[in-house]
Write a structure and sequence with these properties.
Two copies of one chain form a homodimer. Chain A has five helices and three strands. The first copy, chain A, is α+β, with helices and mostly antiparallel strands. In chain A, strands 1-3-2 form a three-stranded antiparallel β-sheet. The longest helix of chain A has 27 residues. The interface between A and B is large, with 39 and 39 residues. Chain A binds a DNA duplex through helix 1, helix 3 and helix 4.
Chain lengths: 115, 115
DNA sequence: TACCGGTACCTAGTGTTACTGTCTACCGGT
DNA sequence: ACCGGTAGACAGTAACACTAGGTACCGGTA
C-alpha cells in the first residue's frame, strides 16, 4: 500500500465518510465495510473511528446508541444540516482541485501514455 | 482560503510540482508563478520551496545553480528518471482515488446539484 | 467449563504534510 | 540612502491518517 495514497487521503477521507453518511445513517463498523465495498480497501478500521470522533466533535453528525445482538452497542451516525453543508463544501473544493489537476495532466505529455 | 483545500493539497502538491517540472526545468520562483497561472493561486511561496527541498532529498530532481542578473543565483530543478517514475506513480494513485470519489459522488444524490 | 473468533468500539503514539512568519541577499531606480 | 522586486531558506505550528494495540459482548466448539 503506497504511502502516496495515504497522503492523498488527507483532507478527502473525512469528505468520503460524510458522503457515505449522506446516503444513509450508519455505524463505524458498517462504514468500514461500505468503504471496502467501494474499493477503499486499504483504509483501516481504526482510522475510520478517528474520523468519526472528529466529525462528531465538529457537530457534522448526530449520534444515537443502538443495542446490537452481538458485541457492544452500535453508535449510529446521522448526517445533520451542518454536516450537509460541510459535504457540499467538500464537493466544491474537490471539484476545483480535481479540475486543476486534470488540466495539468492534459498538458503533461511525458507520462507514458501507455494505459 | 478554506483550510479544506490546504488539507487536500497534502499528498497532491508534490505531484503537482513534479508535473510542472515534467514540462520543463524551472526554479522555485518560476514554479510558484506557474502554479498561480494554473489557478493554484492560494499556494504560498514558502510552501513550494519546502516541496522542492523534499523532492531534491528524495532524488527526484537534478539541481543546477544558475547565476541570475537579479537576486541570488537560481536553483534550477530538472526532473530525472526517478522523478518521472514517481510522477507516473502519482498519476496512477490519483486516478484510482479520483475515480472512486467520483463514483461516490454519483451515488450521493443529496448534495444540491446546484452547478 | 474453557477457549476462540467475529462483532463493535476506542485510544496513545508516530510520521508526513502544508502553512505562517520571518529572514538573508542582490539589484536597479528614486 | 532607501525601497521594491527577484530568489532562496528556515523554525515552529496544526492537521491528518496510520500503527498497534486494547476493551467488551456473544455464540459455537472441544
Amino acid at each position: 500500500m503506497g504511502n502516496q495514497m495515504t497522503e492523498m487521503l488527507k483532507g478527502t477521507l473525512e469528505g468520503i465518510v460524510l458522503a457515505i453518511l449522506a446516503r444513509r445513517s450508519a455505524y463505524g463498523y458498517e462504514i468500514t465495510a461500505s468503504l471496502r465495498d467501494r474499493g477503499f480497501s486499504d483504509i483501516v478500521e481504526g482510522t475510520i473511528y478517528a474520523v468519526l470522533v472528529r466529525v462528531e466533535q465538529r457537530g457534522f453528525v448526530d449520534v444515537e446508541k443502538v443495542p446490537s445482538e452481538k458485541g457492544p452497542p452500535r453508535k449510529v451516525f446521522t448526517l445533520n444540516a451542518k454536516g450537509r453543508d460541510q459535504l457540499a463544501e467538500f464537493w466544491r473544493t474537490w471539484s476545483v482541485l480535481a479540475e486543476r489537476i486534470e488540466e495539468l495532466r492534459n498538458t503533461d505529455n511525458q507520462h507514458g501514455e501507455g494505459a
